[in-house]
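Data availability excerpt. The first of two example chains:
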Amino acid sequence: MNIKGFTFSAVEAAIKKPGRTDLALIVSDVPAVAAAVFTTSSVKAAPVLLSAERITAGTAQALLVNSGNANACTGDNGMTAARETSRLVAEGLGINDDLLQVSSTGVIGVQMPLDRFTAAIPALIAGRSSGTFDDVARAIMTTDTFPKMESRCCQAGGVSYTVAGIAKGAGMIMPNMATMLSFIITDAAVDPAFLRQTFRDAVNSSFNAITVDGDMSTNDTCLIMANGMADNPVIAAGTDEARVFQTALAEVLLSLAKQIVKDGEGATKFVEIRVSGATDDADAKKAALAIANSSLVKTAFFGQDANWGRIFAAVGYSGAAVDQALLSLYFDDVCMANQGVFAGGDAEARGSEVLKQKEFRVNVNLGLGNGSATVYTSDLSHEYVSINADYRT
């Protein structure tokens, strides 16, 4: 990956247990235009509170991130740990403390082992000479089974630049304004106001359109830094270059979001839920999320059972405007119900064949208007229960 002006490092700090890298650093050579979105949960981790306070300036130069400990529900000690680790890294880098973003993921309610951070930080800073973005992607994994990465190369004014991102997440996934953790970097020069709006739009159509288990984390964070070191003409709203950047950013975030769903804890299916014909887009999303989060629907997907009635039931309690006499439902191109009525036994047999695929689409038309929404989800398996029953052991 050819991206200018960023360095990376990852080390083992034994934050939860030894044997894997769990502390990582991303550093821009210069202060970068930055934006971030965070969990909307009322219970927020210390690093979220600290980073949200700092990002209001619209500038960041480095990110410190750990796995193995969420530093959430840890009181004053947790905030002290977030500030102290930030101070130590900023001091080692020779940058202003306020330019450092802090992020954590892992077990909630356990105090952060500050001494382990302190011992690991010198090696973390020294490791920037040989570290890679892939190293960071691996260091932030918890129950993930693979690192999640994506990038796009583009041009602005004849100058090449790159948009690249990483993400982690497999459980506690139904974000609102972010996902568990995702970090996007670009060497493009981008107008700050345009970057903020484009970033939020891309998050809404990607990370805000996925669900694995309906649970939002205390630590959800999505951050972008644009350091301008590609030396392209500044990308601003309303230009052809802006549209290219918007497309690239949206594609990177959507790819990362889909990777999270495909790696959902215990998941065996990747399902795209499309709802159309709603009174407006907001109603369509209500219906789509109700389907995607229904335990009954998700277990039917796992069992490859074309139990379409569970989907209509979810639509009915979603809060969206519904006329059951107008509802239609398809699994891929197989019509399961039309105008609220079952399409018959042959349709059920064909629908069950669709559900045997690892990836398929559910189309629901409410028949009321032009509103539409798409969300992405997984099934609910025995393995999901096993993973989360044993998570802390």
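And the second chain:
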Amino acid sequence: MKLIDLHIHSNYSDGSDSIEELVQKIEQAGIEVFSLTDHDTIDGNLEIKQYIHPSIQFINGVELTCKMKDIKCHILGYNYNLKSAKLHNLIQKGKILRRKKLKTRINYLKEVWNIELTKDELDWLYSRKSVVKTHLANILVKRGLAEDNLSAMKKYLDDCPTGNSRFDGEEALNAITAAGGISIWAHPLGGEGEKHLTQDEFMQKLVIMKEYGIQGLECYYSRYNKEESEFLLDCAQKNNLLISCGSDYHGTNKNISLARLNTEDTRIPAEKITILANLLK
């Protein structure tokens, strides 16, 4: 069976690996098809191709942080035109939103927890292409204020009121479509560290996501067990949606290995990943 991973992060967003390090690890893992899906940035996709061996199939990707009506969600975009003006404009807008959220969190740490970041810490944060909560959490861990970034986020950052800094879901889907890409609902039952949705909760959200034009579901995911994946597969098939897969690998920032597509870490036949027929034409 081919090893496939369509949900991977680098240090262009909240992963720990540089692009070159990431490609080396992908080769070592024996992955044959992969996508780079950093949060709200496509810059890593502009760099990565120079490092990839011709035997490995690469699909450009992105993970957009969105809100569809009252649904907070992440939308994966694949195989888009890297030069799309509409997508670039959306991502530029996202940078502004993320900077605003970052400033709010920095002030929150100072005012609520009496934690003031140093100049070096601030310079590092502001030098990054895409800053997320994990970056602040890593600083707190380095200071010895938490054992790991998940507990740091839970204690110091999760209660910070940041307002809505997400893309409008319709705008995000339109940008992916305009760029010739395919849109997939990432970890639709809930991502890393999140309480998983019940089947009824998911079905209510799926109605709205379909109305907006989502094209597929990430049915195979590192934190989903066999029953959860089978439920999502059934939903995808009944609703004529594409099936995707991804580990959500973040290097040392999350305890997830490359190409892990379920809690059992069993391999999935490529023919079950129906999105591949559209991506590898």
